[in-house]
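Deliverable D4.2, example record:
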Amino acid sequence: MTLVVNIIAFLLVFMFIVVVHEFGHFLFARLFGVKVHEFAIGFGPQIYRKKGKKTDFRINIFPLGGYVRLKGEDPSEEEDPDSLYGVSAWKRFLIVLAGPVFSILVGYLLFMLIISSWGYAPIIVDKVIPKSPAEEAGLRSDDIVMKINGKYVFDTLDMTGIIRQGNPITLEVKRGDERLTLTIQPKLTQKEYYIYLKDVKGEIGQEIESINNIPFEKYMEKYSKGYVTIKTDSGELSGILDNVSILPERYAIGIYYGQFSNVFAKDIDVFSKGDKLLSIGDMEIRSSNDLLDAVTALSLKADELYFKVSGNRVESVIRPVDTIVKVKYETKGELKEVEFEKDKLVQILSTPGVLEEKAQKIKPRGFEAISIAIARSNRLALYIWKTLPGIFIGRNLQDVSGPVGIVQIVGQAVQFGFETVLIVVAVITINLGIFNLFPLPALDGGRIIFALIEMITRRKINRNVENLIHTIGFFLLLGFVFFMTFIDIGRFLAR
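Output generated by the structure prediction step:
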């Protein structure tokens, strides 16, 4: 049933995005006197058709896309004054450009609606590492980051990117009713290793000296999965090295970002909305970081271990909890304790929207809401523009989804509510607009290039040559869609 809902939601979202894009082409074609034969949602045989005075509107059986069919697009049609290739090149340029521009503009308008109606979730500091640059500058847990270097900041990826440049940063933070400005000098960290061991025997110490008699950091340069013996300052630890994540040396200020609080956002199992989670087993729950560590502990089997090493010093160790785990929580001012099977507790904590966001949303008013929405959209558009080109050479594929992935994203958004659906729609429609601006055959950007060439040279391009190039581009684009679909399926099966 969930899959059906996800697919229906995806189709509705996708049709809205397509209609917005194609309406841009339609409106400017009509504005410049180009006849529009059809305005269609979907492809294939029609299931609904309404004849207009100048344009037929139709819905086709396969709702994965849409199009406007303009007079003159078919090479067999004459270049009459009311055809696409019968008008000036600059008019054709604007007709083609209008689709991507409408997509991007609607994304901006949606963010204005979202931020005006619901506000936005700012970046919040979850935890400040002792003796870090952030602590020395006076940053505290629960501080809300409003601006960085005088500009609004909306996501942790953006903020982290600025910090990792290594230059001094100025943070404007909200602490209660106060607004503070703090200057912080990022510091170069040691390389960090997140290590997952299975079939563990022995105890881990404070420092790792060697693995299989090879100095720790040297071994990690060319580590291999398999059985290992780890020598520490307090003895030996053995097990199967199953997975290692390595964070390189980087500039940091020493904070953890807050994501969600320990307060339940809705009723689930024995918990009621507003209940506060206090501990899971022996692990006290006060922050997002504590919750993530607890979920990791719940996911570990009895003979598994997960630990973080900085340089060669063990910074933190997460051990498995018992099969039956005690949970303490507060409900209506009363302390309670309940027992769960750990798999059941993981299921509860992994439910979308089960916990409140760490930071309460900020709801700006008037012009401030518009300026913040524009700033938010600008950051997103810039990130998309920088990221998307890499997918054509095999980079940034983890940041992009195909049709299957988008179905899942929209389905998850539906579970969170209408606001989240609108955010997803805004992001996708800006993505679509920018993607279509790339100067590739079959995309609007490719057609824009041909129009620009004609405007500059004042010579018409052979339409048969242009159509052949776009046809080849279309099949290459189709192949790319199939490629991304296989990647989506691989991600789905790997879960």
